[in-house]
Specification:
single chain; alpha+beta; 30% strand
Length: 398
């Protein structure tokens, strides 16, 4: 007897209810995460936009105040920002300090705000050219929360005439009549190579040629002149008005027996002495030197001096037709009040310098004149700092 085999059951196909619920839960979780991320991004973007708008409001207000605008400008009635201003105490003669603060409700109603301080002439009738004066070089570099210096597109000491190469370096030719070119790192101001010249590529970007790697650092500043009086004072130290004299600059050894570092200096000094009795604008000679260092990173030690052209340096003047005799003073003070004159504060001799230096300024006075002193003054909120002291000390002769 033959029995029929039972029918074969096919395996179940498709997605069960549990699997469907799990997939739905995963999808909902992913969508919620994306929504949360988008919300946070929108909030961050809105906060940044509000901060930029508030910063623009404060900057616009400060520009108005510096140039004689209303002292209490009002925002539109429907503005989401609240602007307040207050005067700050300062001991700087002829200037007043003002703090401007903007408050607003940020994302989700959280309070937010920013405040900026500024200096401006105390007397609105003062020459408005004074309103554009800024003092930046002597202050410490701005740093982020981690203590690192904030990056800038190009180091402040790199001259505007330097050609950007598009690779984080700039090429500077200190002497127009000579082909020598220095390559400078845009971020640090360190000199990385010396080249034989510049050539233009097809795309218009200039390219350095015949380069040799080297280590060097920049040092720069201005030379000003107060030679119209035998008794220069604080006013002459702050705003000297005499004509510029022809000069050059040279690096001397840091001490007897040492070797002076090589220095290549460029400047915009006049080529001839000023004509007696002729009208002239206030003279300012801007200079920048590339000092070759040793080691890695490069360091140098030396003393930067003025080399007169058509005049001489001394303490006793001589009657005509002898060349005029002048004295060189150095702008120098313990600005940060740490008990010493640091390299950035222009000491008589620089030692073991390993960074670019600016604001290394000089003042030329008459042979028998004393180097003028300025009244120390601090900025609001700067604790014991003294960035506005324009005092000078003898440099040549020491």
């Amino acid at each position: 007897m033959v029995l029929d085999a039972p029918p074969r059951q096919r395996p179940a196909r498709g997605i069960g209810l549990v699997e469907a619920l799990l997939a739905l839960l995963a999808l909902v979780t992913a969508l919620a995460t994306l929504w949360r991320l988008q919300t946070l991004m929108q909030g961050s973007s809105a906060h940044e936009r509000q901060r930029l708008e508030a910063l623009a409001i404060v900057q616009s207000l400060h520009e108005q105040l510096r140039f004689g605008g209303p002292s209490e400008p009002a925002l539109p009635a429907d503005s989401p920002y609240l602007l307040t201003t207050q005067d700050l105490a300062t001991d700087i003669p002829g200037l007043r300090a003002r703090r401007s603060q903007v408050r607003w409700n940020a994302w989700r109603g959280q309070p937010a705000g920013l405040a900026l301080d500024t200096l401006m002439p105390a007397d609105p009738a003062l020459d408005q050219e004074l309103a554009g004066a800024v003092l930046l070089d002597r202050a410490p570099p701005r740093r982020d929360l981690g203590g690192r210096a904030r990056p800038t597109p190009r180091h402040a000491l790199i001259p505007a005439s330097a050609s950007p190469l598009g690779d984080g370096r700039s090429a500077w030719q200190p002497h127009a009549g000579l082909p020598a070119v220095w390559l400078i790192d845009d971020a640090s101001g360190a000199v990385v190579a010396r080249c034989g010249g510049l050539a233009s590529r097809v795309d218009g970007v200039r390219q350095a040629e015949d380069c040799i790697a080297t280590g060097g650092l920049l040092i720069g500043g201005v030379v000003r002149f107060a030679t119209d009086t035998d008794h220069p004072g604080a006013a002459e130290a702050e705003s000297p008005l005499s004509a510029a004299l022809p000069l050059d600059l040279a690096m001397r050894p840091a001490a007897s027996g040492d070797t002076a570092p090589d220095a290549d200096c460029g400047h915009d000094a006049p080529s001839a002495l000023p004509v007696d009795g002729a009208a002239h604008p206030p003279g300012v000679v801007r200079y920048l030197c590339v000092v070759s260092g040793s080691g890695q990173p490069p360091r140098w030690s030396g003393r930067l001096e003025i080399v007169p052209q058509g005049w001489s340096i001394g303490l006793v003047n001589r009657p005509p037709p002898a060349p005029p005799v002048r004295r060189v003073c150095r702008y120098s003070a313990d600005h940060d009040r740490n008990g010493q004159v640091d390299p950035a504060e222009h000491p008589a001799v620089h030692r073991a310098v390993d960074t670019a230096l600016g604001d290394q300024n000089f003042l030329v006075v008459r042979a028998g004149a004393a180097c003028p002193r300025d009244a120390p003054a601090g900025l609001p909120g700067s604790l014991d700092m003294n960035w506005l002291d324009d005092s000078t000390v003898p440099h040549q002769p020491p």
